[in-house]
Amino acid sequence: MRAGPGTLFGRLALIAAFLAPACSSGQTAKPAPETSGPITVTASPTPGPVTAPSLRGYHRLVDVEGDLGVLLLGGFRAPGPVNASTVAPDPTWSFTPAGGWINLELEELPPLNDAVYDARSGLVVLLTPGLTRITPDADGPPTFTYDPITGQVEQMGPGGPDGLIGVRAAYDAESDRVIDFGGWDLGPEFSDQTWAYDVDTDTWTRMNPTMSPSGRNFQAMAYDPKGDRVILFGGGTDSETFGDTWAYDFNTDTWTMLSRKGGPAPRSYSAMVYDPVGRRMILFGGTVGVAEEPRGDTWALDANANTWTELSPEAAPSPRGWHAMAYAADGRVIVLFGGGPRREEYTAETWIFDPRVNTWSLES
Hints:
mainly beta, 4-stranded antiparallel beta sheet
């Protein structure tokens, strides 16, 4: 699956040149600058065998069933046009707390908006940025699936939200749907659309809630199985960053605002996952405001009680955005990888948060 300028992946790469380093909630987006040579990144190659992923941001982590544990998918290692100097060269890894990292050695993935594990089908749904600026007659961007057992990437049909960058999604396990919200159209508009995807029938459905969060992108989203709701926090536009918390019920097609204040400061590029042991959401980091100040705080949300609590562990990852997190069921811990204080300073750090004892630890 190598991308050339005339291939589907090549056209996706052209769109990614606009979004990967430049699409910033709370900051006016600009096309990525051209460069005359390789980009210097902040970590030097390490001699010897590669035993962990390279540094990156804008990647995704998903927890899958079975021995693979947490999957790392995609990502960018530096700002600039999409090429060998900017795209992470090792796009697929798996991690387990007991076994560490394993390189799955898939050569290439399409640029990602988000990646969501559909537990009923056993497939990872890959949500791509739109193609509408390159193929205006396209009926929405294509959706891909990744089979973590066979390593096969399959292109599904179009039909989802058109040309939206920074979309975030979560898998509603009770309804067996991927719930998709928000995004940016490369113009003045930020979407407030809600979509649902059924991988079994390869069908996108635009939902019609009477009320919803305002248009935004790069918010945090995760599914709360206790309440059978998708929880959304924050995100932003080119002029505003949000700190509101919402819940979406697919069965009633209803968004409900849980809170507008009293929790984390407004932010984009944070990460949030559900802790099934404590039955709460865990959120870490993100960037605040137009200046994109990185944060290093850890929060818990009890959506049933509608209460945010700052956890304040003794040690924690350094302030950052553009990272990713997932719950590792085999170890009952939360895995964080990558991100950084700014796009020019991504890390290759792996951190483990044990929500039972409120402790972050850096993997060696």
